[in-house]
Amino acid sequence: MRKAFGLILCLLCVATIGSFAAGNKEAATPASITFSVMASGTYDKAAASIKDSFKQSSGIDVTIAAFPWATLRQNNTTDLLTSTGKYDIMSGSYYLADVYANFISLDDYIAKYKLGQGLLSGLMQKCEFFNGHQIGLPYGPDAYGVLYRKDLFDQAGVQWPSTWADFVALLPKLKQIADANGMATIAFAGGAPEQAPALFFDKYDGYFITKDKKYQLQADKAVAALNMNHTLLSYMASDFMGLSIDDANARFLGGKALLLICWPSFVVAAADDPQKSQVVGKWALGKSVTPGRPWLSLWQMYISKYSKNPEAAFKWAAALINAQNDKSFYVTYGIGPEFSATYQDAALAQQHAHQFAAQQYNFSVAVNPPLSGEAQDFFASSLGDFALGKISAQQCVDQVNQKWATMTVPVGLIDDAQKTGQMQK
Amino acid sequence: MRRRIVRHEAGALLLFPLPAVIIILVAQAFPVFYSLTMSFRDWALASSLTPGRFVGLANYVKAFHDTVFLHAVAVSLQFCVAATLVEVVLGFILAYFTVGESRVLRVARTILILPMVIAPVANGTIWRMILNPQYGLLNAILSTFGARGPDWLGNPVLALVSVIMIDIWQWTPYAMVIFCAGLSLIPLELYDAAQVDGASRIRVLRSIVIPYLVPVIFIVLLFRIVDTFLVIDSIYTTTFGGPGFSTNVVTLYIYWQALRYFNISFGSALSWLISILTLATAFTLMRAQRRLQSSIWGVTS
């Protein structure tokens, strides 16, 4: 009996000492959060560049978890749906609509920290909302666009077109210029299956969601957009279906393509760097042409409702989004600026005259398509089959509409579609 | 002398495998049974954390009307048939010429086995670089012969051929290893007797080696059919199912449905359909093996 009593006493002592130690440790340990971000070589590097200074100023230790796009989306979603809470603050966009309910409202934080002042007009409204509350904070906006060889355009007396009809009519002339210079007319990352919708979105101004809140493409406009793409595809580099984003960008940077259809933020910094580019001073960003809405990549930071430290997560977001970083991230990494001050910087505007105005305009007209991850994946694969010539434009639209009819539109995206005119009236 | 196991000893002995049995039940039997029950319900994890209502066979009916799933099954079958046939034939040829105990043969076998020990994801990533149309090793080699290499992963037919080729490269050694083991078990006296009778190499192969290897051939076939039908890693890392739907195999589609879009019920139903198809193939192969062996040797095992 005495032996058992002694044993219990010992165990209690050990447990008490252990709990004190754990308590002290918790009190002494600085706050730490994990930020998930795309391993693009731009956003992740930008975040890493302020990590140490942020820790010094706030005492918060940030772990940057960088993944390729597809993996990032998967990891974020899995983390939320399994209530793991591994990532306190996540990078994403509209394709996370299925899991919006797992993010906290940022309204109070935005008001408390006065975040959003000085941002481009309307940018905060383009962020994601759920049940009327803002859940995403913008960083790194980008609009799918076309980089072109301005020097060769000027030499041939060719003006940048304002409509897709003009663009298509210009293609034979552009091919002549490209052939004369031993380059492909258009480079595009056809080998990255998720990029295929970019060629459609910027030529389609129809709806994606019907009045009764079902996914559907407006058949006549969708077929017209695809037929225009059909012509465009015939002018692409012969191996475009095998090109990754880096391959396509490298082709333009190496002076092997007249046009590059791309995410500009992935390439503009390199294009102006003589160490990485043979087209320094020779290129420009084209202003978005009509009809259609360029694909907006509005990276946003969302705070998980499973985060143990949402306040620290928001502080990190606030540290990342400010006018000073905006300018330096643009200059260093080519990340699209989102503060008006950056665009008003006279020296910067002069230095980047070949893209600034077009970039600002493209942001203003670009929108996020109101597609869930599943709807977009299926759409992208169908467009891949169309690009390969396996199905016609009409078959592609029918196939997409048939499959989309079986999918549910996430609530958050219905509001987005209404705001951006992508819902049937 | 055989010791009689008394009743209390038998009880104690039964306790020994109990932990393993519990682990198997919890880790394997429960998920399998749970996925079966989920396949009859309506549950998308993104909409609800708890399973929805009972929907009977609705998910199975949906699967048979899902053109993407049916196309994925067709792609998987093409992949499975092409990869398995080449792996088995090539594996046998390699085994036949490398079986033996000399140092040269042992080194040759070791080198040939190397692809099998590379992680499939790493393997896919390496091959994606090799097959790059612009900077890839394969097209660089072709260009030294004056040939312009094709766009391996951008062309729908070549993309499928490429992923099959990757599987063959990685898993032919597996067939070779099993065949080597089978070949080394054939009694040497049979070869000696055949030599005395003046049998040619082809005759030895046809009348001794192949009949003796029938069970081994079927084991290799069984494993490779199941493995190739369930391939995902190399396709995920090289083509991600593209271009278009060209290499969208059934496992990748199930993965998307269940773990990318979190359509748990539909994903479970698709998994069960594929499990049934795979099991049916396995049973058919086992029956075919028994029949073939019986016709060769006049016995059933």
Spell out the key features of this protein.
heterodimer, A: about 425 residues, alpha/beta, D-Maltodextrin-Binding Protein, domain 2, five-stranded mixed beta sheet, four-stranded mixed beta sheet, 18 helices, 11 strands, about 15% strand, globular, B: about 300 residues, mainly alpha, MetI-like fold, about 70% helix, about 0% strand
In short:
Chain A is an alpha/beta fold and 425 residues long.
Describe this structure in words.
The complex is a heterodimer of chains A (425) and B (301). Chain A has helices at 2-28, 43-58, 69-81, 107-113, 150-155, 164-180, 198-201, 219-233, 245-253, 268-271, 310-320, 323-333, 340-344, 346-351, 356-365, 373-387, 393-404, 411-419, and strands at 32-38, 61-67, 89-92, 129-130, 133-134, 137-143, 145-149, 184-188, 257-262, 283-285, 296-303. With 425 residues, chain A is of the alpha/beta class. Chain A folds into 2 domains: 31-142 and 297-363, Periplasmic binding protein-like II (D-Maltodextrin-Binding Protein, domain 2, 3-Layer(aba) Sandwich), CATH 3.40.190; 145-293 and 373-408, D-Maltodextrin-Binding Protein, domain 2. In chain A, the strands form 3 sheets. In chain A, strands 2-1-3-11-6 form a 5-stranded mixed sheet. In chain A, strands 8-9-7-10 form a 4-stranded mixed sheet. The longest helix of chain A is centred in the first third of the chain and has 27 residues, at 2-28. Chain A starts with a helix and ends in a 6-residue tail after the last helix. By secondary structure, chain B is mainly alpha-helical. Chain B has a single domain, classed as MetI-like (MetI-like fold, Orthogonal Bundle), CATH 1.10.3720. Helix content of chain B is 72%, strand content 0%. Chain A binds chain B through residues 70, 74, 77-78, 81, 98-99, 190-191, 193, 238-244, 247, 250-251, 373-374, 377-378, 381-382, 384-388, 390, 399, 402-403, 406, 408, and chain B through 44-47, 62, 67-68, 132-135, 151-156, 240-246, 248, 256, 259-263.
